[in-house]
Write a structure and sequence with these properties.
3-stranded mixed sheet, about 450 residues, 5-stranded parallel sheet, 20 helices, alpha/beta
């Protein structure tokens, strides 16, 4: 059972990296292994909706991952299970049999207790967002209203949102956390069941409204209309509103101008990919919570390998530990390479010319500029970034990089590579730009 448990934890770690955070938290995070006998995994979930969702959406993927980890054929079955009771849960009748209580449709997702300010690792990439969130939690509707947090996937926006919610709940405030998708679904149900008054009471009689992933209401006219009135109602009553998005308000081009201007009226704070020191701190924090003592060189190796977001970073640590436990191999740098081999892009498949052309396109210059003799700053930095990516992503030798970039000598290439390596740990904007170029190189 121990190896089965470790295999399941490894699958959870991988799913956490691959899935949208809201979906993972809603459907997968609390799924637990009930038993493993005769190569059959019995996985317990809290309700029939989660069971059906997992069976229809993830069953084959989970089975495939478990087979790969254990190197044998296994099957997976999902059941409704209450942890600690040793028995199946009596499933409730379908909603269709309970028409007399339509407001049951409006149950919201509760704030998640484990997300707090205490376990949020602060670094240069998220310091403003963290400070603003803490100020809002301590003085709702007095510091920044609305607070708009934005940044890429897996960088900590949802963590800060729940941290604000938990702090406010602990101070006896009425908090409502929803994703924009849940807000839309609530509105659709209210229209369908003629319960719009109950809908409005739910969203307007609260102290703090936390809306996750607001970008998904873009293009939905009825949802935007209702959210506009909800926003005005709460703001007019001095109630705190906190919103997250994957992009700043001005970049939400299909959002109505009146909503964009409301979002920009408070404070917009971005969260950028973490630098090396922050990535190391995050991995140390995670390993301490897992009760594991991990050598600094292992932590630093993972931190250098995984740069894009925190979810992938933490998932990679989980995967490395599971790989070590299941294979009974000691934790060393070689094992990290093996454990993360299929998560990291296959560098051998990258053509040097592809890298050069992607860098040129990203900076609005031509390939001829990069391989030519121009030494202006506008050309020199993109050229050095190309050197860095050719070294890191295509595994090119220094002479090969020099040859690709117009016949430059290896000392020039080495200087360019080292300069960009140093800049990436200090310049948040450049780091984000290089990550975007890397994603385009691999067609993501």
């Amino acid at each position: 059972m121990m190896k089965a448990e470790q295999a399941w934890q490894a699958v959870l770690g991988q799913l956490e990296m691959e899935m949208p955070k809201a979906s993972f938290d809603t459907w997968v995070r609390n799924a637990d292994i009930v038993s493993y006998e005769d190569n059959v995994f019995i996985i317990g979930v809290s309700n029939a909706y989660a069971r059906d969702w997992l069976e229809s959406r993830l069953s084959s993927k989970i089975k495939r991952q478990l087979c790969g980890i254990l190197n044998r054929t296994v099957s997976v079955r999902f059941i409704v299970w209450q942890a600690g009771t040793d028995q199946l849960v009596q499933e409730p009748p379908p909603l269709a049999e309970e028409p007399e209580d339509p407001p049951i449709q409006y149950k919201s997702t509760a704030v998640i207790n484990r997300y707090s300010f205490e376990n949020f690792v602060v670094g240069s990439s998220n310091r403003l967002a963290h400070a603003a969130s803490l100020a809002v939690a301590e003085r709702p509707a007095q510091a920044y209203n609305p607070l708009f947090l934005y940044g890429g996937v897996g960088l900590g926006k949802t963590h800060l949102l729940h941290a604000i919610g938990n702090h406010c709940v602990n101070h006896n405030l009425n908090v409502l956390y929803v994703t924009s998708e849940e807000f839309t679904n609530d509105l659709i149900n209210a229209i369908r069941l003629h319960t719009t008054q109950a809908f409005r009471e739910k969203y307007r009689r609260i102290d703090v409204l936390l809306i996750d992933d607001i970008q998904f209401i873009a293009g939905k006219e009825s949802t935007q209309e209702e959210f506009f009135h909800t926003f005005n109602s709460l703001h007019g009553q001095d109630k705190q509103i906190v919103i997250t998005s994957d992009r700043p308000p001005k970049a939400l081009v299909t959002l109505e101008e009146r909503l964009r201007s409301r979002f920009e009226s408070g404070l917009a704070a971005d969260i950028q990919p973490p630098d090396f020191e922050t990535r190391v701190a995050i991995l140390r924090s995670r390993s301490e919570r897992m009760g594991r003592i991990i050598a600094p060189e292992i932590i630093e190796t993972i931190a250098r390998r995984v740069q894009s977001n925190i979810r992938e970073l933490e998932g990679s640590l989980t995967r490395v530990l599971a790989f070590s436990d299941l294979s009974n191999q000691p934790l060393d740098v070689k094992l990290v390479d093996v454990a993360l081999a299929d998560l990291l892009p296959k560098r051998s498949s990258v053509e040097p010319d592809d890298i050069v052309s992607q860098v040129a396109a990203a900076f609005g210059v031509t390939v001829q500029n990069l391989v030519g003799s121009d030494r202006s700053k506008e050309i020199a930095l993109p050229r050095q970034i190309a050197m860095y990516l050719l070294r890191v992503e295509a595994n090119c030798s220094l002479p090969k990089i020099g040859e690709t970039l117009g016949g430059r000598d290896h000392t020039t290439v080495l200087y360019g590579y080292q300069k960009v390596t140093d800049l990436l740990e200090r310049d948040d904007k450049l780091r984000r730009q290089v990550i975007e170029i890397r994603d385009r190189i691999y067609g993501q």
